[in-house]
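Re: your question from the hallway

Yes, I did run it. Sequences:
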Amino acid sequence: MNQNLPPSVLIFGITSAMAEHTARKFAADGCKIAIAGRNQARVHDIAEDLRVRGAAAIHELPAFDARKPDTLAPCVAAGFEALGQVDIVLIAHGSLPDQDRCAADIDTAISEMEINFLSVLRLCTDIANRLEALEKPATLGVISSVAGLRGRQSNYLYGSAKGGLNVFLQGLRNRMQPHGIRVVTLLPGFVDSPMTADIEKGPLFVSAEKAGACIHRALVRSAGDIAYIPFFWRWIMLVIRLIPEPLFKRLKL
Amino acid sequence: MPFADAKQDDTLRSWGLQPLPAPQTPVSIRSRHATLPRSPDKTMLPRGLGRSYGDVCLNGDGLLLMTDPLDRWISFDPLTGILQCEAGVSLDAILKLAVPRGWFPSVTPGTRFVSVGGAIANDVHGKNHHRAGTFGAHVRGFELLRSDGARQWCSRTSHADRFRATIGGLGLTGLITWAELQLQPIHNPMMDTEDLRMDGLSAFFDLADESDAHWDYTVAWVDGLASGEKLGSGIFMRGNHARPDDATPTTKKLRKPVEVPLHAPDFALNRHSIRLLNFMQDLKLRGDRQQKQIHFAPFFYPLDGVGGWNKLYGRRGFFQYQFVVPRSGQQSPVRDILRTLSESDESVFLAVLKCFGDAPPEGLLSFPRPGVTLALDFPNRGDSTLNLMKELDEIVFSNGGALYPAKDARMSPDHFRRGFPALDLFQTHIDPAFSSDFARRVEAIPPRNPS
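Structure:
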């Protein structure tokens, strides 16, 4: 990162509550920020907000829709062109599908795979190649989920998309390491946001604001490759993963 | 069923923790461009941070339009101090944004955890009312969303009548989606303050008159338990934003409050513990006059360091009783009120006295008006507390006074009408789909026919 210039941040899926709160932190840091989302009107509201919060510059990128592959590449190209140098990229879009619908209807399941896995794979591949070509240190953060660490009957379609994503990011991290490019897998647990509006809130829920602060710290200050959002999910998931499969398959989780 | 989660939520109470509402359905307003929920059989009421004390923020059997997601800035001009923001933005957020840039809310109530929408709907006031008027006086305009889908930009020049109805309109005229505010310039976050001992009520009026011209902020804390000679004794506090040359700014982060984890037992605040607290307050003031420069947070928001301080009153909650009466010379009705208090068995934790300025009310239902206002906290002890407040009503209303809706949980329809003579005009602006427990209780809205 050039110490004299404000960092440049590129965010996909800015209308996700977690991404918006992360962006607020970057804006307060005085960063240059380019943002993209599906709903252009909401992207515009967020752009105005980030400007007031102190962002050095805000670029509203063309709308992208994770279900429409041909909307992704133009959006990435516009982001790199607007910012020139790119220091931090955050990919945040996603959807939480209804597992029962995914089990009953394969088209729904495939469409959710497209949103939560394939579109991220497309974005990451394009972005990684561009970052490699720029030959500057950079950070690529991707919001995955603790749900990707073990398949459960209540949520395994989403979990398998995120699980595939986790392995993909491992490999990408390995590939980008010699180029000084950090790949950070962000693993939120339960976050109180519009995505989880229909789920009853328990004590493990954190606010989107808190999650945003954790993500900002994981991208800017810490050097870790895998960040649990917040930290305690590391220990919860350790326990969950240690349960032997013959026992786990009998649990109602 | 359009609203799946109709579960009663414990957090949807009022700040005084009573009255208890019938089940309410919260509906998050995710965007200022969103439309209102369709609910032919349920009324709706906007809700911000739930800091009003009684039932103006409750809508039993109805919807609550939760404005907390409306927390975005729209624009801020650091040259003019004009701020545009969504209605769910809190004063806390405004302070964090504006103070480092040399601006401050033109009017702030005693807590920074109120939303802009709530501050407009209750036309809140602060310690600078005698100089600056109410919050509404510094609102340049706002967008009002009505249940028929109409969006109106209301200001002093556009829909001016609706503007006046919505300021202090208790959320009944529609949903405020965003607003444009005028902030005031400051040089630094510090306050030059002076605390003075006052030995009685006439000392209060003398100090208030003397301070009017040179002090932007004045308020008095009165010992509600003092009687006889000492009736109306307490501490008079005044302050100004510090000048640029003589300030030694301390950088202070506006911290998240430390939460009170549980309801205190009902006996925690009683006559004796309050006497002790008042005594300690008294000890803090050495001599008769103390000048000091302090950060704005302890000056304006002494209670904001403790989140959920309302729980200290126990599960039964508490009443706020805030009235305004004309000054009528030195023989103010306030004297009769204080005498009644000192002769009663009820304990008053907070007694805050302030002279309002002469500015005409900003809204049709604005509470502040020329005169003197006293705010009292009573732990809820049931009938004895209610009876004392009835006694106080006699004094307030025989002197042409009024009670503050934002703090009220028990005034009668007749008292409301007498305190707010513009009610008839206001009623023409009420959105037919909007209602609240308060509006139904004081019959600002005629009862609905169950059809």
